[in-house]
Model the fold of this input.
Amino acid sequence: MNRDEQQLQEAIVTYLRLVMPEAIVHHSRNEGNRGGARGKIDGARGKRMGVLAGYPDLIVHWHGTTFLIEVKASNGRLSKAQRSVKENLEAQGIPYCLAKSIDDVRNFITIISKEKVHDQKNGNT
Done:
């Protein structure tokens, strides 16, 4: 994760904790920190333990809804693995947000909130 993405992710986490204090916001630590033989060993261990390449950066549990956020710098693009995971999650009906700004997250939460209210009115919880 580059510095711009890290700063944006920290800002998004701060924002989520302010506007959704009851939500659980979790960072999925998929990034590798070491190269060489130790990095390969860590990578192999992570895969055995369930690390999935391309999994979104943030997992949010909020009032019975779970959604995922992939954070990218303004010029960032999804990798092939990230696109595959995104498509798989969306095919399963799991809300997914590609966030390049806090506004992206704010707009996404607005949509999620409206869908939740709609489902509750129609008896779908």
About this structure: The chain has a mean pLDDT of 89. The chain has one domain: 3-121. The radius of gyration is 16 Å.
